[in-house]
Amino acid sequence: MTAPSHTPEAPAADAAGGITLGRRVLNYLASGAGIVLVLLIAILVVIIAKNPSAGEPEALVNSLHKATPLLLLAIGQYFVIVVGEFDLSVGAIVTTQAAIAAVLLNKQDEGTYGVIALMLVVGLAVGLVNGLIITLLKVPSFIATLAMMLVLVGATNLWTGGGIVKGALSDEFRKIGRPLFGIENVPGVGTISWAVIIVVVVGVLAGFLMKSSFGRVLMVTGDNDKAAAFAGSRTNVTKIAAFMLSSVIATIAAIILAGNTSSTVDLSIGNGLEFQAITAVVLGGVVLGGGAGSLFAAILGALTLYFIEPLFRELGVSPELRPAVQGFILIVAVAYAARSGSLRRRKGTEKRQS
Amino acid sequence: MTTALAARRPKMHLSTTQVVLVALAALVVVLTVWYAIRGQNFFSFNNLADVLTRSSLLGFVAIGQTLVILGRSLDLSVGYVVALTSLVAGTTMAGESGRLGLGIAAALGVAAAIGLANGIVVTYLKVNPFIATVGMGLMLKGFIDVYYSAQEGAVPEGYKQFGYYRIGPLPVSTLVMLVFGALILVLLIKTRFGAHLFAVGGSDDVARLSGVRTHRTLIIAHVVCSVAAGIAGLLIAARFGLGSAQVYNDGLDLDSVAAVVLGGTLLMGGRGSIGGTVAGVMILSVLSSAFNVLDVNPFLKNVIRGVIIILAVALYARRQIDPLSRRARFNARGERRAAEIVDHPVADPLATTGPGGNR
To answer: Is residue B96 part of a domain?
Structure first.
């Protein structure tokens, strides 16, 4: 990557009080979010070069559909990470919610929306408990949500007997998660599934939320919760809200994921999703420890993480080797983001001194 | 104000490690009574041997994990290190007793190299330890799945004794774990490295400005942590008689973090103890043995474990809010002196900022 400074036009533009668009783009690309954007575009280019049909709008929308659970989990995890915490219970929430849906619906279409409402309430309740344990009992979120994961998975297995849940999802329920249901016959792209519409709505709402005063308090609390508290922010309420957002969005992800997988629910459905969600958010340059990083970058991180799998398929990387390459990309991308972050800060101080 | 603080001072001030030990003792008492009601004996030879055997594997990993957590880092790759070192040991030894030393050296060497890589990525490349070690774990998983089958290699017959031999009810592996813990304890409280590690965990910036080589300290902690996981891998090889890749599914990484935190070590670094960690491991292995004896539903185990971990950590967290709770690295004498200073302020203002003073 080329350094954005030392171009002859740049100082002139600075003197004029504005920054040229090109320079702004280069600055963005040097940031944590930028490198993920470059990585995502590079991955897409390679995939499309290997398999041109993957580049057609219909195929891209279909890929987006498959990426929705991860996108949702990343959006939910973003709120928690930006406030300086972890939520390791989201995978277990997906498992629990999918089991609840399968057992209560038992293949009957009636009452589908009542069950979905109940699941959302359960999601909010789990987030509330997580938040209360972390704020009032002052248990570190890593431990609290890890224990919540043990409790949820244990309780769900205990309740259903483990393995494949007795009972099944109804067809009505599965419409939300399957690719063929949605707004049909959109010119050029075919069907836009409900899942894609849901993820766009959740993403836009989350974006507005981050621009609101709640989002600002969330960011400040993640940066320095003591200072935020002294400034009059209700940091505990903010943290609890972040956990409730995370688990309710995980519930939506569960509805889509379970519906799209099959009509039966295997209790391994949520395994490892929490690590994927955290990885996606951090890949987008959001700092663990809170107080920095944009929602858009977290979404880019989730998309990049999703497209690594098709990339490996197109390149013929053996399935056994995939985790190794994924781990390597992860470390290199985060290391690069950390490096360019310090670079920018140094430039900032220079500017202030001059 | 100062007298009010002094008056609030509890009469019996237990350190966090002592609280963990009390919790362990209470658990043992409860279980002894419960077993007795069922007509069983907690202190029977077989039961003690079972509890102690369960403790050794997690013990090694958790002792290593304590070091990195004290330095405000984390190692989530330990499960994969255990699997890989067991395979390296098994394949290198190939069943010949002449290659025993070579196998042990190869396994620990691989572990140390992984720890070194973790440490360098965390310090010099500034990658968050969570991401760095999850990434390292993924890389190791890929490596293991590509180059090894699920079970491979063989250890010499004599070496299996490391996994099975017992002195009375005390398995030799647990004895080695306790000796290893004692060595790390000495490393922490008697050496310069130990003092530096507490300082780095307390505040990386302050430690660096005080002239501590923070990167080097944290790298050493990561190397020792991986080597400890490597010893656990050697134990796996001795118990199974060969290297096993499946160990990485056993959740040793998260279990070890749970044991360390259960032992009263602060996840934010800078405070904690090896004694607490060993007690935390013992609590988990007593529980796991009791679940087995009492025939608890395997799924209920996880629920109970989760609840116990939350309750224990909430208990420690309450204590840590107490302004007079002691820092693990300062002894009782220093704290008494600090209390005297608080009660009788001296002219020299610097004296109140000494060790053990109010934060």
So the answer is: yes
